[in-house]
Amino acid sequence: MHGVLRLDFLDGYVGVVDLRPWIARGKIFTWLQDPEHFSDFTVDEFGHHVTWRTGDGHDIDFGADNLRRECERQAEIHRLMLAG
């Protein structure tokens, strides 16, 4: 799904993070509004960042710690919604 990443962390935690709210803001994230651009990311050698290289050579990156917190936050919101 465009704008959503499934992330596997070294401690065994697996999370899903929805980045669509950031992408929708535009500005530096405008590049990621194209599904082909979004799907073309790299994970750095040590797994500390997920990075996209824009057409003009700039990097858009999210740190692993921030992504983990966001995965956990979104999972908790989802859990609370299902618990009703």
TrEMBL record:
Domain of life (superkingdom): Bacteria
UniProt-recorded name of the protein: DUF2442 domain-containing protein
The organism's taxonomic lineage, starting at the top: Bacteria, Pseudomonadati, Pseudomonadota, Alphaproteobacteria, Hyphomicrobiales
InterPro entries attached to this UniProt entry: DUF2442 (IPR018841), NE0471-like_N (IPR036782)
Biological source species: Methylobrevis pamukkalensis
One matching Pfam family: DUF2442
UniProt cross-references to SUPFAM superfamilies, sorted A to Z: NE0471 N-terminal domain-like
